[in-house]
Amino acid sequence: AQSVTQLDSQVPVFEEAPVELRCNYSSSVSVYLFWYVQYPNQGLQLLLKYLSGSTLVESINGFEAEFNKSQTSFHLRKPSVHISDTAEYFCAVTPTDSWGKLQFGAGTQVVVTP
Amino acid sequence: NAGVMQNPRHLVRRRGQEARLRCSPMKGHSHVYWYRQLPEEGLKFMVYLQKENIIDESGMPKERFSAEFPKEGPSILRIQQVVRGDSAAYFCASSPIGQGGTEAFFGQGTRLTVV
């Protein structure tokens, strides 16, 4: 079984400031890792994912996440946020050797203010 | 190519009534997943279906909940005799294959309110 812990339920941040959202997981098997973003009253959109290879993965809108196997973490970062980044962010994992049932963290609400 | 379509977007039911939530996967996707999001919580897996087959229903409550994905038509999540605790957002996702790591595309959800 897998579990995902997002350490911060809410992160307030000023526009153009950096932000880091923390995600730790536990699993007895190898996993793939994902970050999803949910805007108000919307479904989830995939932000980025780690399957294999380079431990640093990037999204097209400036987010990046680094897989750290020894610390079982997959923290999400952005060096400079915009107002439009206000949303809820979910970290998720799925086993590599089975079908893709996603185990989600509880989410981190990012609120960007001017 | 339309995305995952869920309807209705909002559904209000009185206690004891039935709720039927529909999900049309993306074109070419034969794998459907249902998740439930309770207030202040992340999404919890409910059930994974392929056409005419339930593959994994380990997240489904034992009573009142059922799901199907017929050969023709949308996937249906059915909740009988709803109670206030069923109030939540229900999300459907689809993928072209079921392999882990394959991106699942999510619909906008159905927000069920039980009064």
Sum up the structure in keywords.
heterodimer; A: 114 residues; mainly beta; 4-stranded antiparallel sheet; 0% helix; globular; B: 115 residues; 7-stranded mixed sheet; 11 strands
Kindly estimate the percentage of residues of chain B that lie in beta strands according to DSSP. Answer: over 45%
- Total strands of chain A: 12
Global morphology of chain A:
globular
- Mean pLDDT of chain B, nearest integer? 92
Shape of chain B: globular
Which runs of chain B of at least 5 residues are low in confidence (pLDDT < 50)? Answer: none
Question: What's the tally of helices of chain A?
Answer: 0
* DSSP helical segment count of chain B: 0
- This entry's quaternary arrangement is heterodimer
Kindly state the number of beta strands of chain B: 11
What structural class do you assign from the helix and strand content of chain A? mainly beta
Q: What can be said about the biggest beta sheet of chain B?
A: 7 strands, mixed
SSE topology string of chain A? EEEEEEEEEEEE
Q: What is the overall pLDDT average of chain A?
A: 92
The most extensive interface between chains reads: A-B, 27 and 29 residues
The whole-angstrom Rg of chain B is 13 Å
Radius of gyration of chain A, whole Å = 14 Å
Low-confidence stretches of chain A: none
Distance between the termini of chain B: 36 Å
Distance between the termini of chain A: 41 Å
The percentage helix of chain A is: under 10%
